[in-house]
Automatic annotation (TrEMBL), chain A:
InterPro entries: Brnchd-chn_aa_trnsp_AzlD
Keywords: Membrane, Transmembrane, Transmembrane helix
Protein name: Branched-chain amino acid transport
Membrane-spanning ranges: 6-31, 43-66, 72-98
Source species of the chain: Pararhizobium antarcticum
Classification lineage: Bacteria, Pseudomonadati, Pseudomonadota, Alphaproteobacteria, Hyphomicrobiales
From TrEMBL, chain B:
Chief place where the protein resides: membrane
Originating organism: Pararhizobium antarcticum
Protein name listed in UniProt: Branched-chain amino acid ABC transporter permease
Topology of the protein relative to the lipid bilayer: Multi-pass membrane protein
InterPro entries listed in its UniProt record: Brnchd-chn_aa_trnsp_permease (IPR011606)
Length: 104, 238
């Protein structure tokens, strides 16, 4: 990359950083306009984490291939009893074993 | 007291740091692979501090996509943070303006999840607890980005060493952590199906916003619980 291309990339990163910060403060700015939270909005807000995070899990399970799906399934059952680090370890071991023995 | 809060936050954030570190290194390696210098990679980690969107950004940059589309895509991937910041506003009203700016700048997924869980357990949300939890993730994130970018070639194919399954499994552990909340199962089911459908029809990264919106709208429409909720304790640590 030459000098002007590099500067160009720095501008892109700065614009992306600003866009990211706007998403992180945007909800606060919205909430401060309201005096009290209506119960249905409260219910909606309580659903946010599970709703968003599910969209990062389900497509990986469906489109990631059977090795990834199997590893996620094992991690799921581990996660019903143990912490996230054990889930990561179990899922990683399963996917590595499948790839090693099935030659994926 | 503030010092205790800070170190309690650091201890709480430690497991997150451990599981996020491979992604920091992976980001650094992939960034260099897509034409970034080591400086650019670390600069992006310092200013954005948003792993998934950073991955999307370098992928698009590597494919010579127009700058406005790169910025818009990063905005779309991070759009969920608007909902996070709206949701934690309840717990940080007592912070000073400068503390709020720092708080929202550092609002990543596990930080949000842990703040909500702490509030649910009835423990106080102090700025120094929040800062401690954030710093044990933020500082190593920069360091791991640097290491990954510097030793980029040594990581090679992330799939070959099984790194590709860690991100979805980590997000799944966060989902499981919220399983005692009202409407958890219907919300997870609807968001999962909607995101897969949106991935199929519209494509990435819109499946995130579309799938999330479906679950949130469902929660807003379902019957409200009659009594005020009893505080719920979560077994799962993030």
């Amino acid at each position: 990359m030459d000098q002007s291309e590099h500067l160009h990339l720095i501008y892109i990163i700065l614009a992306a950083a600003l866009a990211t910060f706007l998403t992180r403060i945007g909800g606060y700015v919205m909430m401060m306009q309201m005096t009290r939270i209506p119960p249905r909005m409260e219910a909606a807000l309580n659903a946010v984490p599970a709703a968003v995070l599910s969209t990062l899990v389900a497509p990986a399970f469906v489109y990631g291939g059977w090795d990834v799906a199997a590893s996620m399934l094992v991690a799921f059952f581990v996660g019903l009893r143990f912490s996230s680090l054990w889930m990561l370890l179990a899922g990683w071991l399963v996917v590595m074993a499948i790839r090693h023995f099935a030659g994926l | 007291m503030t010092k205790d809060d800070f170190w309690q936050g650091v201890r709480g954030g430690f497991p997150v740091m451990v599981s996020a570190s491979p992604f920091g290194a992976l980001f650094g390696a992939l960034a260099v692979d897509n034409g970034f210098s080591v400086f650019d990679a670390v600069f992006m980690s310092i200013t954005l501090y948003a792993g998934a969107s950073q991955m999307v950004g370098i992928e698009l940059f590597g494919n010579k996509v127009q700058p406005w589309l790169i910025v818009l895509s990063i905005f779309a991937v991070n759009f969920r943070h608007i909902l996070y910041s709206a949701s934690i506003t309840r717990h940080v009203r007592h912070f000073s303006p400068v503390q709020k700016i720092v708080t929202f700048f550092l609002l990543v997924d596990p930080q949000y999840a842990e703040t909500e869980k702490r509030a649910e357990r009835g423990e106080p949300i102090t700025f120094f607890w929040y800062l401690g939890f954030a710093m044990i993730i933020y500082v190593p994130w920069q360091f791991m980005t640097f290491l990954g970018a510097y030793f980029g070639q040594m990581i090679g194919d992330p799939r070959a060493i099984g790194l590709d399954v860690l991100l979805p499994i980590y997000f799944m552990s966060l989902v499981l952590g919220f399983r005692k909340r009202d409407n958890w199962l219907p919300v997870v089911a609807v968001s999962s199906v909607a995101s897969v459908a949106a991935m199929h029809i519209v494509g990435s990264p819109w499946h995130v916003s579309i799938g999330a919106l479906a679950g949130i709208l469902l929660a807003a429409c379902l019957p409200l619980p009659r009594q005020p909720e009893a505080p719920v304790t979560l077994e799962n640590e993030v």
